[in-house]
């Protein structure tokens, strides 16, 4: 199911057919460095991740991480969406792009459209974004989207401090 379209992409809900892409993405060097090892090393684990992290979020919250596809080829190139965490009082926007697609403006294009969707279609009043302080590309993207630095916080209660950014409904 399509959530939104941009000039170059389609953002759609994940299905079990996305398991090979998810397995590739979560084992890429950027994901492992900045997000962490999710221990997804086969298609069954990828399908379980899709069930637990995406499909359940769609059912529970009406939103979740979604697959970004290049419009011309319909090839999956990233994962972008809203996540509701127990440690935050509003959803956060999360994103990860396939290594070969980084730096091409896809993440900004989709995140910008998704923010508008969050305000107009989902009725959000506030959104967060966060990343590790050393993830310069993500920090720059959050700022370019209009989020402002709020504080450092251990969002996962793991001892790892993240830079937390916030944006209120325009």
- Overall pLDDT metric: 94
Strand arrangement in the largest pleated sheet:
1-2-3-4-5
Number of extended strands: 8
Largest sheet: 5 strands, antiparallel
Q: What structural class do helix, strand and pairing data support?
A: alpha+beta
Radius of gyration: 15 Å
In angstroms, what separates the terminal alpha carbons?
A: 28 Å
- Overall shape: it is globular
Question: Could you spell the SSE succession in H and E letters?
Answer: EEHHHEEEHEHEE
- Count of helix runs: 5
| Beta-strand percent range | 25-35%
Ranges with pLDDT <50 over ≥5 residues? none
The level of helicity is 25-40%
Fill in the keyword field for this structure.
five-stranded antiparallel sheet; 8 strands; alpha+beta; three-stranded antiparallel sheet; 5 helices; single chain; globular; 170 residues; 34% helix
Secondary-structure map with pairings?
Blueprint: E1 2-5, E2 9-12, H1 19-26, H2 29-34, H3 43-61, E3 65-70, E4 76-83, E5 92-97, H4 106-120, E6 126-131, H5 136-145, E7 148-153, E8 162-168
Antiparallel strand pairs: 1-2, 2-3, 3-4, 4-5, 6-8, 7-8
Helix pairs in contact: 1-3
Structure, briefly:
The chain has 170 residues and is of the alpha+beta class.
